[in-house]
Amino acid sequence: MTKKDSNSQDWLNHYQHHIWPPYTQVKTAPAPLPVIATNGSTLTLADGRTLVDGIASWWTACHGYNHPHITNAVEAQLKKMPHVMFAGLAHEPAAQLAARLTKITPAGLKRVFFSDSGSVAVEVAMKMAVQYWVNKGTPKRDRFITFRHGYHGDTMGAMSLCDTEDGMHAIFKHYMPMQYNIAVPSDEYSFAEFDELLGAMKKNIAGVVIEPLVQGAGGMKFHTADILAEIYRITKKHELLFIADEVFTGFARTGHMFACQEAGITPDILCIGKALTGGALSLAATLATEEIFNAFLSDKHEAALMHGPTYMANPLACAAANASLDLFEKEPRLKQVEAIEQQLSEALEPCRKMDNVYDVRVKGAIGVVQLEKADRALVLHLRKKFLEQGVWLRPFGDVMYLTPALTITEKDLRMLTDSIIRTLKD
Ligand SMILES: *Cc1c(COP(=O)(O)O)cnc(C)c1O
After folding, report:
1. Closest approach atom of ligand 1 to CA 122
2. Could you report the per-residue pLDDT of 330-371, keeping only the tens digit for each?
3. Atom of ligand 1 nearest to the CA of 158
4. Which of 139, 146, 196, 226 is deepest in the core (most CB within 10 A)?
5. What is the mean pLDDT of the chain?
6. The dihedral of CA 200, 205, 211, 212: what is its sign?
């Protein structure tokens, strides 16, 4: 266990004066918690307190924090070569990782474009899709069909794909490209409508973008594998591109390595990120089929994909990702997800009958308790209550959610669910 951090008052002062924090109204927000160390599913604070982490740092730390296999791989790579530019130079960590990713993602995805964050992976997917049609000689197909409650990132293109009713990005409405944001179809009637819409609009549409099975940061909404398969079928019937954003769902979170695999579908383009490095470093990727990639092969230079992040395929991040994939091979992560799903289902069931609970849902290592009503004051109150009980949970909007490390112990998971139940009872 790490010792108390006696100089934290100093650096917290710097934080307060110089940091611009994410998604925060700085004027009214409570002070952030000084964290000085992590281990497994535990955060250690400067005053010596520890918290059981129910979020795994936006579900990135899938093997728990500080997994020695990942730490060692990054250390070894650090000594050899921390970084080189990726234009004109090749390196083994990226090549191995790309080959391994094409083996574990839905069959047919063959090419990997690396970037540093999920949002950029989505931007790259959008550029690939739009330029695919340009290269094919049908340049007007530059709009996307997206879904209500979707979240795809915070950069301009990615924002344009998010739920348009959600207030978070409303200020930028006039800067963003306009897309078609519709409800996820769920019955015969809405599927017929979806089919008709695609038929009517397809001359202007590049593709359909969806978070398969679980829509994450836009409200933690679920749909079934049958619904996903039907959305895919209709999209392909109209010969549109199907783009899966698995930045949230990828790497076993929903019970399969990738959510698309539960529906037995291969998207034309797949975005991954977040848990790709097991939570150690920032890395994301956009995968494409040969059909997409081949449309960029030409004697004309302008048919090439013009994108290349400075830190593209950073060797440290690739080493972390390769080590993370070793762990998925060597350790029983999918079994652990099954056990988490079972435990979450049983432990959260009593919430269903409580006042102010609208819905309880569990899928893989994701547990959600949605409230009937939650204003800002209630959200802040809940966050405070969780802290007092030694757990790190951060409800947003009307949802309390759990996305723990896939390696969390039964006891720690129990502590998280008990804390939700106790807090709801009050
Ligand atoms: C988090 C997330 C993103 C954005 O990833 P960043 O790394 O934060 O840019 C995109 N899509 C989905 C589904 C996500 O959950």
Report:
1. 10
2. 999 999 999 999 999 999 999 999 989 999 999 999 999 999
3. 10
4. 146
5. 96
6. positive
